[in-house]
């Protein structure tokens, strides 16, 4: 199974969403998960993982999730090959047993165009990095359902965490 994860922050709280699906061609989620994190670390430039990693780990633990692959909104390697990003820190935290694929909407300084993919006729690329084979990861993201830049299930996980944060702040 594949799990896409995203996090939405509101002040010092976070809403974490997970969308579980069977394969790269899936149009619908098998299951959706939400976790509210009561206290998150301050944002630290260059060390974003310190804020997001505990949120992701809480979602995985709270729902006892053990996917084969995790897709994160961000980078595995900030430079594509060696400089650890959120995905690499997650990979290490899980004992190197789960492949992590990072899909980022914005280029990190120095990232090569070889990590860019274009979907749905968009002129804006997505940047794909991975703990596994990057070319296979790029093909996987390209094969995901959806006619637009962002695959349907990656958009869904983004919407879920945003909606959860909005509901919580309206209470």
From TrEMBL:
Protein keywords: Endonuclease, Hydrolase, Nuclease
Domain of life: Bacteria
GO molecular function (one): endonuclease activity
GO biological process, one term: DNA repair
Name of the protein this chain belongs to: Endonuclease V
Organism, scientific name: Vibrio eleionomae
């Amino acid at each position: 199974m594949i799990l896409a994860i995203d996090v939405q922050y509101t002040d010092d709280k976070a809403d974490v969403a997970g969308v579980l699906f069977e394969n790269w061609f899936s149009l619908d989620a098998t299951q959706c998960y939400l976790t509210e994190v009561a206290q998150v670390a301050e944002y630290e430039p260059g060390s974003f993982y310190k804020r997001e990693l505990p949120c992701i780990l809480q979602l995985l633990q709270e729902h006892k999730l053990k996917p084969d692959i995790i897709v994160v909104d961000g980078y595995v390697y900030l430079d594509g090959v060696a400089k650890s990003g959120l995905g690499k820190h997650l990979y290490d935290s899980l004992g190197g047993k789960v492949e992590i694929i990072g899909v980022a909407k914005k280029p990190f300084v120095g990232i090569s165009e070889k990590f860019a993919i274009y979907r749905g006729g968009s002129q804006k690329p997505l940047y794909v990095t991975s703990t596994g084979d990057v070319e296979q990861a790029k093909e996987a993201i390209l094969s995901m359902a959806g006619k637009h830049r962002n695959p349907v299930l990656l958009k869904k996980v983004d919407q879920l965490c945003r909606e959860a944060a909005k509901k919580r702040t309206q209470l």
